[in-house]
């Protein structure tokens, strides 16, 4: 009887021990490489990046934890996924709208960047080179600061483009992403002016200003700015016309347009434009 009681007690203790370990295994702990999502609009295009962020933890990252010359998931855990709502141009190469796995092959001098259409894998599982949609190389640089955690950033946004950065430890890699905003805006301008025949001074001004800012076809921009001034000689329309005339080398006309702009701005108490026009007039008079 004692033997049976001893066996029952031993079984109960064993059961409690294993139950305890089972409970411990189910603790809710933070992810070692937390997941993150980056969302950014470039031009009209929505960009979404989903990835996991491993930490350095005193280790050698590139050339150690991430071997040189080997395919890397560009993060941790699941494959890094990048989604573009519209077609884009990356490093000068076209990429259709859609979702892609972002893989990289780090090397001491340059990295290979890969956008692959297989998006269902864990890490590099399921990767096949035949599914590469875009592949190019970029230079490896030193980061401006130390990144303990792997970080993907979309920075340097100007008009319809930005740079995508891959930063970890003291390493930084970047490449440009250009949206199709310019194509859409140019097509819209052509539709309003050439097809719908809209004769609005604000439309001509906006079209001319867009071309001026984007450094597109100065002659066409000047034509639109001149039409805007003819329809409505507003100080900002005259100011843009003056800058386009100067850009075309017509400094006498530029000076006259700037003087008219300054006078109109003075009347409407936009004194910043008065100062700016007078500064440009002094600069252009030296070129006569």
Automatic annotation (TrEMBL):
UniProt keyword Signal, yes or no: yes
Q: Which Pfam families match?
A: DUF2911
InterPro entries hit by this protein: DUF2911 (IPR021314), TPR-like_helical_dom_sf (IPR011990)
- What keywords sit in the KW lines? Signal
What is the annotated signal peptide range for this record?
A: 1-25
Q: What is this protein called?
A: DUF2911 domain-containing protein
User: Which organism does this sequence originate in?
Assistant: Nibrella saemangeumensis
């Amino acid at each position: 009887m004692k033997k049976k009681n001893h066996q029952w007690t031993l079984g109960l203790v064993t059961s409690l021990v294993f139950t305890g370990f089972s409970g411990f295994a189910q603790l809710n702990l933070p992810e070692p490489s937390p997941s993150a999502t980056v969302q950014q609009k470039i031009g009209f295009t929505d960009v979404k990046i989903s990835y996991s962020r491993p930490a350095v933890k005193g280790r050698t990252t590139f050339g150690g934890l991430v071997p040189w010359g080997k395919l890397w998931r560009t993060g941790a855990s699941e494959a890094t996924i990048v989604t573009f709502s519209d077609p884009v141009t990356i490093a000068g190469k076209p990429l259709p709208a859609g979702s892609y796995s972002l893989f990289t092959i780090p090397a001491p001098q340059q990295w290979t960047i890969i956008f692959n259409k297989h998006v269902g894998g864990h890490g590099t599982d399921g990767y096949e080179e035949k599914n590469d949609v875009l592949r190019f190389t970029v230079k490896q640089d030193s980061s401006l600061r130390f990144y303990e955690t792997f970080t993907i950033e979309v920075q340097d946004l100007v008009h319809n483009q930005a740079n995508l950065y891959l930063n970890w430890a003291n390493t930084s890699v970047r490449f440009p992403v250009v949206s199709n905003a310019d194509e859409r805006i140019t097509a819209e301008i052509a539709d309003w002016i050439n097809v719908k025949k809209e004769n609005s001074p604000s439309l001509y001004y906006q079209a001319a200003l867009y071309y001026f800012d984007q450094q597109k076809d100065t002659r066409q921009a000047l034509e639109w700015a001149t039409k805007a001034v003819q329809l409505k000689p507003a100080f900002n329309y005259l100011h843009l016309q003056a800058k386009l005339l100067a850009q075309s080398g017509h400094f006498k006309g530029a000076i006259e347009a700037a003087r008219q702009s300054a006078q109109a701005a003075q009347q409407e108490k936009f004194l910043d434009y008065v100062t700016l026009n007078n500064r440009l007039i002094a600069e252009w008079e030296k070129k006569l």
